Amino acid sequence: MPSMKKYALVMAGGEGRRAGGELPKQFVKLLGIPMLWWSVMAFHEEDPQTEISIVMHPGFFDDYDIMLSELPREVRDVPVRLVAGGRSRAESVANGIMALPDDAETLIAVHDAARPLVTTELIRRAWECAGANGVAVPVCPVTDSLRELTGDGESVAVDRSRFVSVQTPQTVRADILHRAYRLPERPEFTDDASRVGALGEKVTLFEGDPANIKVTNPRDFAIATALLSGQNR
Predict the structure, then answer these.
(1) For residue 6, what are the β-bridge partners?
(2) How far apart are CA 54 and CA 40, in angstroms?
(3) How does pLDDT run across 116-174, given as a tens digit for each residue?
(4) E strands, the chain, where?
(5) Which of 53, 38, 126, 112 is nearest to 83 (CA)?
(6) Alpha carbon 213 to chain centroid, angstroms
(7) DSSP-based three-state secondary structure for 59
(8) pTM score, two decimals?
(9) Are 106 and 7 in contact (CB under 8 A)?
(10) How far is CA 184 from the centre of its chain?
(11) How far apart are CA 140 and CA 122, in angstroms?
């Protein structure tokens, strides 16, 4: 996609509340590399011309400097811009795109640092899909059985074939994403796609990667480490 400029936002923490002084999870090392840096390396490897920003709460900037100084020399020199995040993910994305172009010739990928297993192949397909359609969201089929809570302790079975699991990077043409983040806040705005859909724009889905897991619980670190060990990035 030589005609379109590409920017990647790696979302690495909102307000940044710590629990018990533990290291924030985006800095926890997987195979010797902090979790957030795996995503940075994937975007850079896919296309070194992609401009990458890490968006995090300013309270983590000192942690970031320490992390950078401890990175292995061979992966340290990826050019990255550090952006101050806000009190929520929405505010952080808005801060991240503030200095980026607002035009139809630019694509912006918004990716959660908590998904360190993103591959160059998934990133490439995200750029291609967004370049062709304006909006690209990776999804995977739901494999678990689902039930809908109806209140008073009751529930009903639902058809899981009607649902998909949403991943990142969610990749959007810059002019669309800027408009989406000028919308007033709503409870249903849980990601970039929900905002873009509220504009009336078509949200194009493409095949995600089941291995592109979100590291949330302590056991997820062990799973992510095992998957990274066998991943051909």
Answers:
(1) 107
(2) 8
(3) 999 999 999 999 999 999 999 999 999 999 999 998 889 999 999 999 999 999 999 99
(4) 5-11, 29-30, 33-34, 51-56, 80-84, 106-112, 135-141, 146-151, 154-158, 164-166, 170-173, 204-207
(5) 53
(6) 11
(7) helix
(8) 0.93
(9) yes
(10) 22
(11) 12
